[in-house]
Amino acid sequence: MKFGVVVFPGSNCDRDMQDALQRDLNKEVIMLWHKDEDISMFTTDDCIVLPGGFSYGDYLRCGAIAKFSPMMQSVIDFANKGGKVLGVCNGFQILCESGLLPGVLLQNANQQFICKNIFIKNDATGALQIPIAHGEGRFFADDSTLDELEANNQVIFRYCDGEGNINAENNPNGAVRNIAGIRNKQGNVFGMMPHPERATSTALSNIDGKKVFELLGLN
Known about the structure:
Elements: E1 3-7, H1 14-24, E2 29-33, E3 47-50, H2 70-80, E4 84-88, H3 90-97, E5 104-106, E6 114-122, E7 125-134, E8 138-140, H4 143-151, E9 155-160, E10 179-183, E11 189-192, H5 208-215
Parallel strand pairs: 1-2, 1-3, 3-4, 4-11
Antiparallel strand pairs: 5-8, 6-7, 6-9, 9-10, 10-11
């Protein structure tokens, strides 16, 4: 599996993602400029990553302008054909704005930017320590959409404490049902607010991010 990392004006985690994938996960990485369109070098066994940052300065809404970039039109086509797509932080926002994932990311409940280590989990693992860094990471959807996500097992991560307990006290941004990440019905598009690429190196004393890529089948 090789990876393409899209670079938007305002991306600031693109090189972090490239470094984590190449150095820590031993993957081939191709950087993709937002004004380009050609991703013919990728097959549906590969993965396109939308990294974190402030694409187009986060004007209007986070990710609202990025969805119109030439590269995103190619990414949408790639995803619709079954190609794997991962959006992290701002990338998650772009996926929701593009309609590849349901829901929206709203301003954090405390109306402040949050940058710290938190814990997330899913049904297949205990608590993983992964950093967050966002001001608009509060996932929201209406009840019918949330119920559908739950019924289809589309919630991939929830915020929790270090013991794996899911509660309001350990929900950093007020996301509904403690949702930290979701996938589409087909299981090939993933979006999450926490940054697994910041937790793949022993130099940082945390490699829980590697487990995230494994759980998503991106290893």
